Amino acid sequence: MKSLSTRRVLLGITGGIAAYKSAELTRLLVKAGAEVRVVMTHAATEFITPLTLQALSGNRVHTELLDADAEAGMGHIELARWPDLILIAPASADFIARLAAGRASDILSTLVLASKAPLAIAPAMNQAMWSNTATQENLHILRQRGARVFGPGSGEQACGDVGPGRMTEPQELLELSAALFDTGLLAGLKVTITAGPTQEAIDPVRYISNRSSGKMGYALAAEAAAAGAIVTLISGPVALATPDRVNRIDVLSADEMLAASLSSVQDCDIFIGVAAVADYRPEQVAAQKIKKSADSLQLNLVKNPDIIATIAGLENRPFTVGFAAETNDIEDFGAQKLQRKKLDLLFANDARATLGSDSIAAIALWPAGRAELGPASKRAVALRMVEIIRERLDAR
Question: Residue 159 catalytic?
Answer without folding.
Answer: yes
